[in-house]
Amino acid sequence: MKSYQSKIKKAKNYLDNNCCIGVPTETVYGLAANAYIDSAVKKIFRLKKRPKNNPLIVHYLDIDSLKRDCLINDDFIKLYKKISPGPITYILKLKKDSRISKYVTNKKKSLAVRFPNHKIFRKLLRELNYPLAAPSANISTRLSAVQASDVKEEFGGKIEYVLDGGKCSVGLESTIINLINKPTILRLGGLNISKIKKILGKKIIFNINPKNKIAPGQSRLHYSPGIPLRMNVIKPKNGEAFNLIKKRKTKLKNYFYLSTKNNLDEAAKNLYTCLRKAKNKGYKSIAVEKIPDKGLGKAINDRLQRASRY
Ligand code: TXA
Ligand code: MG
């Protein structure tokens, strides 16, 4: 634990000086900066090459720290009590006197907030007296980072520090739910929707592919490995990397296992790593076996569909 303390101290020092650093969460790594400081937040957009109109998620330790910046409601409290910290992001109303930088929200009146469930990240948040704005730590439209080395691959020497917290346990971005009016899912993600339905006990609206894009993570091209990708493949073409979810008898060099046991949680955890590997090994395209459209399989298929529009 002692070594963590020195890493956390280092991370805090960079953040206190308005730098932008890589941080681990249970979903994917984030590119974090002080959410209250304009100049720090602007660095995130520059590094990620992110359009200015795409607002950021702000990460808090707990509900008490959130109350300074957002208005909360009953649906939020129900979900917060049962599933936070965890892989869910809530859209709430921003308070008029909140200190959140206008660059975080693109001057919107709502804020995306998340309480990450990663031991080291939570220890870091406990040391800070400000929340952290953090999008996924990847260049815009590219694959998310699920380990410290991925973040370094994305940004090289352009960021000063990555707080290494090991490999992300979930491996997919958080599920996003707008709670300002009727609960509306804006992005499928690491938290199973059935859990949310059960807790809220009412109908949930889905708006994950709107014409009018509220969450640019909904944009058609996203999560791209940078090479063509095909879904629902039975047999790969010559020279194609093949992502599988069930063990095959034959062993081939181009096989990359998301899971060997048809386990969708495991497949989610390995998804970005397998895609990144295929790209880095020089394959010109990727084929993916059919993924069952249930549980986290729904979020995996959502990512693959967007990635396949390369
Ligand atoms: O798991 C995650 O959510 C990761 C980790 C680092 O927390 N973060 C992440 O951030 O995936 P990002 O920026 O890659 O995706 C956030 C999505 C974007 O699609 C953005 O448009 C949407 O959230 N978003 C942010 N603020 C919003 C708001 N006020 N209303 C609607 N959508 C919003
Ligand atoms: Mg992202």
Observed structural traits:
binds threonylcarbamoyladenylate; 10 helices; 10-stranded mixed sheet; binds magnesium ion; 310 residues; DHBP synthase
CATH superfamily of the largest domain: DHBP synthase
Number of helices: 10
Order of helices and strands: HEEHEHEHEHEHEHEEHEEEEHEH
Bound molecules: threonylcarbamoyladenylate, magnesium ion
Number of domain units: 2
Unreliable residue runs: none
How would you sum up the global shape?
Answer: globular
Beta percentage is 15-25%
Q: Specify Rg, calculated over alpha carbons.
A: 19 Å
Question: Helicity, in percent?
Answer: 25-40%
The mean pLDDT is 95
User: How many β-strand runs?
Assistant: 14
Distance between the termini: 43 Å
Could you say what the CATH architecture of the largest domain is?
A: Alpha-Beta Complex
Describe the structure.
The chain is α/β, with parallel strands linked by helices. It folds into 2 domains: 2-206, Alpha-Beta Complex (DHBP synthase), CATH 3.90.870.10; 229-307, no CATH class. The protein has 10 helices and 14 strands. The strands form 2 sheets. Strands 1, 2, 3, 4, 5, 6, 7, 8, 9 and 10 form a 10-stranded mixed beta sheet that branches. The protein has a 4-stranded parallel beta sheet with strand order 11-14-12-13, with helices on one face. α1 (2-16) crosses α6 (119-127) and α9 runs parallel beside α10. The mean pLDDT is 95. The structure holds threonylcarbamoyladenylate and magnesium ion.
